[in-house]
Predict the structure.
Amino acid sequence: MSVTVRVPAKVNVQLAVGAARPDGFHDLANVFLAVSLFDEVTVTPADELRVTCTGPDAAQVPLDRTNLAARAALALAERYGRTPDVHLHITKDIPVAGGMAGGSADGAGALLACDALWGTGASREELLEICAELGSDVPFSLIGGAALGTGRGERLTAVEVGGTFHWVFAMAGRGLSTPAVFREFDRLAEGRDVPEPVASQDLLAALAKGDPEALAAAVSNDLQPAALSLFPELADTLAVGRAAGALAALVSGSGPTTAFLTRDPAAAAEVAAALRASGTCHTVRTASAPAPGATVLP
Ligand code: C5P
């Protein structure tokens, strides 16, 4: 008996970042959009907690208790007074340390899979609460679609999306550490007033309309200068995608994956071909949005 859950990656179409808080986190206005790149987490009863992973980036995935999937199983087991005696297998398709919430996806996936396997009967609210303890992006991986995250990004309000958006993602040859990118944001912000993060009404309206041109005009990422400062070559990748006709080119979350919004699948294929030919990135993928959140597969 085993349970498999499929979980999407995300891109942040708006990532407004406030000043560092006393706890080290930053208040955000974070508009998440789930995209059709997926990890799968399969949970099977076992003698003890064990994590395995397959996929192109599998070698970079930690298999110990720092893995968010393991931490999710431990958290749920503790809450329901049982032993986390499961084998968690991750089929990884989301880039590792790429700014697309791949680790968070595995945490949300493992949580939902263990919940189904153990029949805990936990409510959606309870699962979201555990997700928020695991990490700022984990609750969104559970719900998918599109949402505005406030606080450190974990307090979610669903956002309406009135159409399908076509994206291209360029993965870099190495990862970026999210804490390092936030530290670089703080360094670059030194001596400057950082405004309170506020969701863009133009952006929310563009999502609701399903209008790619309007969305392209409204996307923003306050972490982009920090990611570019740590990884200057990303500017070349962004320039290639823009020149190939992308409506918008931006760093995804804390990076280093770059995201290109296009008008339609044909334009996406053109941008993807130009990026592949350019030699400025490691892998190129196309995806559509919004994608559903964590889902138990039949
Ligand atoms: O919540 P999560 O564990 O994913 O956060 C990883 C790191 O990213 C934090 O330790 C912190 O350095 C940074 N972060 C932040 N402000 C946020 C979210 C994350 O500074 N709102």
Remarks:
- Residues 165-289 form a domain with the Alpha-Beta Plaits fold (CATH 3.30.70.890).
